[in-house]
Amino acid sequence: LVRLQFRGLPEEERKAWFFEKVYDSKGKKYDMPVLIGALGASPQVYAIGLQCRVQEIGQRWANAQANPIPPVLVKDGPVHEVVYSGKNLMARGGLEEFPIPVSTPGWDVAPYMTSPYWVTKDPESGIRNVGTYRAQIKAPDRAGVYVAKYFRGIAYHWRKCRNLGKPLEAAVIIGAPPNVGYTSVSQLPTDVDEYNVAGGIAGEPVELVKCKTVDLEVPAHSEIVVEGEISTEEVELEAPFGEATGYVGQRETGLIFNVKCITHRQAPIWQSFISQFPPSES
Predict the structure, then answer these.
(1) Strand order in the sheet with 270-272
(2) DSSP label at 220?
(3) Helix, coil or strand: residue 207
(4) Each residue's pLDDT tens digit, 182-210
C-alpha cells in the first residue's frame, strides 16, 4: 500500500501511513503500531516536520546550521518508561518484541531497521555522531550495521576504537522528534554534533537522557532505544537488501551490533522508511 502511492501518486499527494493492527507472516499479533513515511513521504510532510512552509525548507536548514543550539541533559524521559537489560533483556523477546517490516518481500534476507538513528561517540574527541545506517536483524540480541561508506561518522569512530582495541559503544534510536531524524540522514561534517543542528531546526535544545548501559545520550522523547556495542574484532556477511536506488544489493561485509539493553515508551510506535526503489523517501 505504501509502495503503490510512490509509484502512482503525484508527489504532493503522498502521505504517511500508520498501521495499528499488525501481524507477522505466522499470524503473531503485535500490540505496537508501525509508522511509515512520516519524515518525507512528500514535501508537504517534510515541511510539517520542520514546522515551516515547503518554500521555506531550504532557509530553515541554512538557519539551523548557522545557528546551532546545543542539547540539554535531563534526568529522565518517556524513553525510559520501560527498560530491559541484564537477565531481563529477553523478557519480551529482545528485538523480536518489535514489528520490524520486511521492506522488500521476496528479496530482503531478513527484516531490517530502515530508519534507525545510530548514536556513537569519537573515542578521542568525544564528539557525537547521529547517522542512519540500515540494520539487518540477525538474532533477538544481534543486528548488522551497514556503514556503506568509509567517510561516515560511525565508520571513523569504529576505526578509532579498533585501533584502541575496544568495541564501539552505540545506541539505536527508533522514532524521535523529526528534527533529530532529519539531521540523522543528512551529510553533516564529522566534527559537527547532529544534536546541535537539530536544536537549530527546532529553535530550542534537544532534551537528552543518559543511556542505561553505554556512555551515550539519546533524545528523552524517543520512542525506542536499543543500546549495545559494535564489535571491532569480527564482521559478518549481510544482505541481500532492496536499495534506495532501485536494485537489490547483494551480500557484503558488515559490522555486528550486540544488544545490551532495550528501552522504550509504555506504548511505543515503530518507525520505518520506504526506500527500496526511486522515487523514494530517502
Answers:
(1) 17-19, 34-36, 270-272
(2) T
(3) strand
(4) 999 998 998 999 999 999 999 999 999 99
